[in-house]
Each structure stands twice: as structure tokens, then as C-alpha cells.
Amino acid sequence: METREKTAPTINDVAQLAGVSTATVSRVLNQPDSVRDALSKKVLGAVARLGYVPHAGARALMLRRTGTVGAVFPTVDNAIFAKAIDALQRRLAHFDVHLLIATSGYDQESEMRQAMNLVTRGVDALALCGFSQHPDLLLFLRKRGLPCVHVMVHEPDNELMSVGFDNAAATARATRYLIDLGHRRVAMLAGITQSNDRALQRVNGVRQALATAGLELPPARLVERPYSLSEAREGFRQLMAQRPAPTAVVCGNDVLAFGALREAQSIGLDVPGDVSIVGFDDLDMASHMQPALTTMRVPTEAMWSTAADRLLASLAGETPPRNTEVEVALVVRESTGPAKKE
Known about the structure:
By secondary structure, the chain is of the alpha/beta class. The chain has helices at residues 11-18, 22-30, 37-50, 56-63, 79-93, 108-120, 135-144, 167-180, 197-212, 229-240, 254-266, 300-315; strands at 68-73, 98-103, 125-129, 148-151, 162-164, 186-190, 222-224, 248-251, 276-281, 294-297, 323-325, 329-331. It has three domains: 11-63, 434 Repressor (Amino-terminal Domain), CATH 1.10.260; 68-165 and 300-326, Response regulator (Rossmann fold), CATH 3.40.50.2300; 167-298, 3-Layer(aba) Sandwich (Rossmann fold). Helix content is 43%, strand content 15%. Helix 11 (254-266) links the parallel strand 8 and strand 9. Helix 1 (11-18) packs across helix 3 and helix 10 (229-240) packs across helix 11. GO terms for molecular function: DNA binding. This is LacI family DNA-binding transcriptional regulator. InterPro entries: HTH_LacI, LacI/GalR-like_sensor, Lambda_DNA-bd_dom_sf, Peripla_BP_I.
């Protein structure tokens, strides 16, 4: 007995079942605000009964859009970027725009390849971290005229669209707080600064605050490590092996600070009695550490939701603000205290 291969329903099938024209079906699916609710419900009911799926390619050609936004993150193995992806995706989904993500491993060449791959696959806009992209990628995006927002950075004079904060000013604020507590031997446990302008700016902020107070950050008190607990523990051990040892350590993010806290406990140092530790980001775990971590709070969800709004506005033909600054705050907890008297 022959079996007839089941064919996918077409827009004509939907129109026939709903008793409308194919043009009406198209308007319901692509411009729902232009159709009466009753008519829309009739068409969507037919779509559901038939299991009709619009042809993405045809829709993209008609709208000259794919309804997708791309984002390249350094990694997803970090809670701060997981929160960023969630915020970005939820905001875009509210407007029926889909998110495609890629990771670069903090590598400039990889970021360029991944971003170009996303553009090749038809994304309508891009979100990138920081301003430290390969010059060829920035030229490529400018030539394409593709909306792009740079997140987690704020430089008022930069012509690129951005949503973020002044990383140097943030760590400078944390460092001034430590100086006010009497600390003079302040060290920095930083992320790898190569191809990461946020990490470099955070180091510069510590330097600037110390210099203003007549202090310095000598080479031995600056250690760069990848953002992992094991690397952070090793870096903290290296800093505390110096003589005289630092009395305070500013960390490039909370992951590094978590590792520093754990290593301090492992080698018998009291925090903050022997050494004060400051993080950056205010991840959920920061308030649950023992001792609870003093850190710079970054409004991650609001920042990435705003970044989505800037891209959506650009795609709608509007002219969004070029630079948007979000506020970061110093959250003082138990991991910092006055410098030990010697």
C-alpha cells in the first residue's frame, strides 16, 4: 500500500482554513498591530491547527530583517556573563527578537571571527563587550552600517555606541576607600589585561588613586591571572609572599576575590585583620562569603537591558543616545577593615 508523504502546510492552506487572503495572513504574522484582534485570532487559530511555520528566509527577505541580534561574550563560564545573557535575551524576546551568542575566550582574533560569522548568518545588530575589538572588525561593522552597542564601558568621547561605566573610576573609588582606612601597601590581583580594556582600566584606576595619595603600585604588587578560583589562589599567594606583604588587595572581579578569600583562609591569614580584600561585580555569592565580600556593585541586568533597547531603537530607525552611563556603587561588607598597626 502506498503512503503519501506528508507535505508541510503553506500560507495558502492557512488562508483557506481561516477564510482570508494570503496577504491578511502575512499581515497577522509580520505586522500584528495592523490587524483587528478578532481577525488575528482567526488566522492564528488556523496556524495552530495546521502547524504552519513561516519560511524564515522569505520573511527575512520581505522585512529585510532576520529578527535576530548577535552577541559575542568573552566566556559563559562566569556568572556576570550568564546574567548578561539572560537580561539581553529577555529584553529582546519581549519584542520578538531572538538572540544568537558566541564566545571569544578573551581573544581579539576569535572575537572578530565570531562577530563576522554572526553577521554572515544574518543578524540585524550586534552587542560586544568593551572597546578593545580588532580594528578590522570595527571597520567591517562600519562599512556594513550594522547597529552595534559596546557594553560594560563608558568613554564619553568615543564615537561608538555604548552602555556601561568608567572601570578606572570604579576601582579608583575602591582604592581610595582602602587608603582612607589607613592602607598604604595596596596590591592588585587583576584579570589578564591583554585584549581586555576593562581589566586594564581597572588596573589604571588603582594606579591613579594610589598616585593621587602619594603612593605607588610597584610591579611586584600587580599580578594578572585568568578569571578562575585556582588561578586567583595562586596569584594571591604570590602577592602575600612579598615582604613586607600587602595589607589590602583590590581584585579585578569577584571570582578573583573569592579565590583570594579562600587562599587567605588556607594559609592562615585573617580577613580583614591581616589583609583586606575588595572584589568587583557584586555577584550573588559575594554577600554569602565568610567574611562577606566588599565589592563594587554593577547593575548588570539594567545595563544589558538598556543595551538591548539601544539596538532595538537603532533597528526601528531611531537615533538612540550614543553613550549611556550606568551607576556602580561601593558595597562595604566584612572583608575590609582598618590597616593593621605595625
